[in-house]
Task: structure prediction
Amino acid sequence: MPDDPATDEPEQTDGGADLELDEILSLLSERYRRHALAVVDGQPEPIPIERLTDQVAGREFQRPPDDVSMITRTQIATALHHNHLPKLEESGVLTYDSDEGEVTAVAVSGTLASFLDKIRRHEG
Result:
């Protein structure tokens, strides 16, 4: 019996465990995505997009988020909202509720977790 495309749910991965190496490298090729994953990984509660933006800005410029201009933080928020968070959600490594403005971690695992740990040690 053929699948009904109207009722098929997109297949979610288990925190990156099922991702192919090329997908992992693509996800981690953008600094904002690396920063966002580092911030949300292991967080038990949803993170407001504003707080995530501040943390990404702080990591990006290696200074307190309040020292990063509001214009720059707005540009980061826009990039996260329109590009990076949807890409990470599509890959199954986090969930992004744009209506509520919240990001929820999915436990990062497998090869993605290994790469993310190495990146954390390198980027701080």
